[in-house]
């Protein structure tokens, strides 16, 4: 079984190669190119292709893949909004994905961001490196005994609830659906109540029409002064311009963002030599209480191994015509 692996990064190659001996029937070729109509032809005589969130798996790409003899598209991620699923069905190409891989990886980064902005670790690290041992600008607050407000209590939000409980926090949550696994220690409240009473707010709901810009100047004004806000979910849950307005109103003790509206085009690219034009990212980073990372929530050894293992099992199932819960 031959697999062509598009847009391969060094860490992808490492994680897939490390478990390949468990799949003796699979042979993988890695290429750096993204899967799109111009590169689909490279899959000639491969049984399956592996793609990521940024691929263009449109009808045109799928037609070319089908002509090449490809029988399965394996998404090495949960999302599949970039795949024309109807066209794949019409062409008889199976599409499989990795619905869940280590939710704790994302939740632990959410807490790391909350801690880092609270205790200003990014500043403290640089100060000590510069032989500056003063404490100016570093004072934080206790999490112990405070209230954590978790928006969205699916797999990742539930993991964040458990972490916050471990810190000795009272945990409240808002979701359109209540997670029964959390009933012993999480109190569900309205979104308004959560905004008004939380000391730490962490976003873990998906980006939908109903959640687009759910954090805006109106919701920010409802928050407590000195709140910490963390977003590891999707950038557009927050209206960035209005977040900046809220920062200028001195609302936040800290803000930690692993995702942000402007990230497309930046994510996983090195743009350090470029002059950024009209960058709200740069504006956000000009504030002393903001810390940003680039969509690295999923990026742990365990999550990468889980993605590789599920993807290769998906390949075997797809080529044997076996349907599973990972089918799109
Ligand atoms: P999930 O599907 O298990 O949970 C999502 C939860 O959000 C569900 O409980 C759902 O009922 C709730 N929800 C839906 N609409 C809502 C609304 N209007 N208000 C409040 N809650 C609502 O998803 P999972 O796996 O926990 O992922 C959460 C998000 O994390 C994903 O949507 C994704 O955007 C993000 N993510 C970020 C990663 C990173 O590397 N930073 C990696 C993986 C996921």
Question: What would you say this structure looks like, in words?
Answer:
The chain is built from eleven helices and twelve strands. The protein has helices spanning 10-19, 59-68, 85-91, 103-118, 121-129, 155-166, 191-197, 217-222, 240-248, 280-285, 301-319, and strands at residues 2-5, 27-30, 48-51, 72-75, 94-96, 147-151, 170-174, 186-188, 200-203, 227-231, 252-257, 290-292. The strands form two sheets. Strands 8-7-6-9-10-11-12 form a seven-stranded parallel sheet, sandwiched between helices. The longest helix has 19 residues, at 301-319. The two termini are 21 Å apart. The model has no long low-confidence stretch (mean pLDDT 96). 1,4-dihydronicotinamide adenine dinucleotide is lined by residues 103, 106, 151-157, 174-177, 204-206, 208, 210-211, 232-234, 258-259, 295, 297-298.
